[in-house]
Amino acid sequence: MTSAKPAQRIEWIPIDRITVVNPRVRNQRVFLEIVENIATIGLKRPITVTRRIESDGPFYDLVCGQGRLEAYQHLGQREVPALVVGADAEDCMIASLVENCARRQHRTIDLLQDIGGMAQRGYSHQEIARKTGLSYDYVHGVARLMDQGEQRLLRAVEARTIPLSVAVDIAESDDQGVQRALHTAYEKGELKGKKLIAARRLIDERRHRGKRLKVSTQKSSRLSTASLLKAYREDVERKRALIRRANGAHDRLMLIVEALHRLRMDDTFTGLLEDEALGTMPEAIADRLARRGQPYHA
Known about the structure:
Layout: E1 10-14, E2 18-20, H1 28-41, E3 47-54, E4 57-64, H2 66-74, E5 79-85, H3 89-102, H4 108-120, H5 125-132, H6 136-147, H7 151-158, H8 164-171, H9 175-187, H10 194-209, H11 225-264, H12 267-275, H13 283-291
Parallel strand pairs: 2-4, 3-5
Antiparallel strand pairs: 1-5, 3-4
Domain ParB-like N-terminal: 11-101
Organism: Novosphingobium guangzhouense
Pfam family, one: RepB
């Protein structure tokens, strides 16, 4: 498998021709922050895609940048700047996994789905570790927990509540074996103090509620009036902050235009500029001065 090589220039690509190969559910608050950031200062880093040719023209598969792509779409844009790389579906999947591993606040389930997807596609644990930069022990341990549906233990490992090796021992033991695993981890210094208490609480939850995490589907329907009002007020305050920044930038630009106009009207200053071969002005600035009704002569 060959590695993807980035393109030398950025292309503007229609959003409706981009397919998200490895989609994820985004935290709504974080997503709105991305939207606001792009709306305020623009897109700092283009998305990355790979091109595929179909009968009705070129289409693109997303390699990385789902949040940025969806933010652009949310803002009503029809095109998005992108780096086009040469990569097949396997490369795209690996690149997406690597980006997810590198993300500061990634969800455990996302990482598991990526590793599980590579395993289902025929990759060995050694290959997954080599391609993603994760250790073999981590990949192997995660795969074992995932095969047994140990979502609670996996979340605890990602939160660093318990070590991965201890989680594997717990997953493969009966009740007595679990207590021995906790005792051994305590003697080795792997679980002490608050971590030991958290581990015992986790074991109790696992025993009474099962291995898997239950995701509530009723959260959105239980929003209180106070929560909605708080969200509305926060949104209004963000918009007011944007307006304040915009007004401040407008005032500063007007000040700059006025200063340029006065300097341009100063014969001594323009004479110095001409002596230094700096007597010309960018066309955009000249046009801006002209729109203020102040004549400009090149």
